[in-house]
Design a protein that fits this description.
alpha/beta; Aspartate Aminotransferase, domain 1; 2 domains; 12 helices; binds pyridoxal-5'-phosphate
Length: 373
């Protein structure tokens, strides 16, 4: 069997070790130290927000965002429907109630019109949480306009979109609070980790406090609030810093893979995951949908790629179809939900940064083979 081609696996470069080595030499192994401080400055500076808190995961960052907004049991939160469950689970951690909002077809992200419609039924949600799916920016101006009109805070889940831009402005800089992830499969990885970002210094300071067990500044261990053990370690931050040096390079390679596929599949009854003219995705994952009635299914392609030892995956299953959320409402404006169509007809293609041109061509050849061309 030929060597496995991954969907998206970590790509290390060597500099990561330099930062880890320094942490060892100075014995700053704990969840604090120079790497943590510098990583926070580097990522928040790059995104263009004033403050960042480095945490153990993007999920922890979302949890603290939800907590900062003050979501309490029973509060309604409007959430992207087509996403990974980590976007929406933290709402449940605090007892909130998700209302899922359908996607629009131009970016696969939250539909601003469906969002507006949701306010007719639920005039007072506590927050809106949007994702930039697979590294493609959402229609943020329209979504923000709806949020501002109704005076509701926006939380931006930029876990998959580090480096993606809208009108030259980075995703992760639009929400009252935003998060990014450095999970193993992301555009850069710290082996696992995330960051909470905000211009609001008080929010980030408070989040760092919650993330370190809500320990009050007393010599003895004093706690007035429930805390969490969410801080990123100085070793993990070192890996992140080494990776950050290669972010633009990773985006360039991912972009090349996406456009190579797009060109090679232009005569097939398929469409690559779309984006608007004003946005620059980071092309984290190359995805496609098959045209209806083309006679093939995403499973046919996933199976064919599996046979050459290449990893392809289904699109995230929409949240309104998840058994755990059957009691949650779902707002959509089209006859058929857009997220259902993308899920039913879509898949994620292998787009590992380490793929050779030969491997890219093998994927293309295999996908074309499914259509008999
Ligand atoms: C859209 C989205 N949100 C949140 C997360 C959570 O990030 P983490 O795995 O760092 O907790 C992920 C990735 O895992 C994700 O893809």
């Amino acid at each position: 069997m030929s060597k496995k081609i991954y969907l998206s696996s970590p790509t290390m470069h060597g500099e990561e070790m330099k930062f880890i080595q320094e942490a060892f030499e100075t014995n700053w192994i704990a969840p604090l130290g120079k790497n943590v401080d510098e990583f926070e400055k580097e990522i928040s500076g790059y995104i263009g927000v004033k403050n960042g808190a480095a945490l153990i995961s993007g999920t922890a960052a979302l949890h603290l965002a939800v907590k900062w907004i003050g979501i309490k049991p029973g509060d309604i939160v409007f959430c992207s429907d087509l996403t990974f469950s980590a976007t929406v689970n933290p709402v449940s951690y605090e007892g909130g109630v998700q209302v899922f909002i359908d996607s629009e077809p131009d970016t696969w992200n939250m539909c601003p019109k469906a969002l507006e419609k949701a306010f007719d039924k639920y005039p007072h949600p506590k927050a809106v949480i949007i994702v930039h799916l697979y590294g493609v920016p959402a229609k943020i101006d329209e979504i923000k306009a709806v949020c501002d009109k109704h005076n509701v805070p926006l939380i931006e889940d930029a876990a998959e979109s580090l480096g993606a831009k809208i009108k030259s402005r980075q995703t992760g800089s639009f929400g009252e609070l935003s998060i990014v992830s450095f999970n193993g499969n992301k555009i850069i990885t710290s082996s696992g980790g995330g960051m909470l970002l905000s211009d609001n210094e008080t929010a980030i300071k408070k989040s760092r406090f919650w993330a370190t067990q809500s320990r009050e500044p007393f010599p003895h261990y004093e706690h007035k609030e429930i805390g969490y053990n969410y801080r990123m370690s100085n070793i993990v931050a070192g890996i992140g810093r080494g990776q950050f040096l290669h972010l633009e390079e990773h985006i360039k390679i991912k972009k090349h893979i996406y456009h190579t596929y797009k060109k090679a599949f232009s005569d097939l009854p398929v469409k690559m995951n779309p984006y608007t003219n004003e946005s620059e995705p980071n092309f984290w994952l190359s995805c496609m949908t098959l045209n209806e009635n083309c006679g093939k299914t995403p499973s046919d392609i996933i199976k064919a790629l599996g046979e050459i030892n290449a990893e392809a995956r289904p699109i995230w299953k929409p949240m309104h179809l998840q058994p755990v959320f059957t009691d949650r409402d779902f707002i959509f404006i089209n006859k058929n939900p857009v997220s259902d169509d993308i899920f039913n007809m879509g898949l994620c293609l292998p787009c590992d940064i380490k793929m050779t041109e030969d491997q890219i061509n093998l994927i293309i050849h295999t996908v074309r083979g499914v259509f008999g061309v």
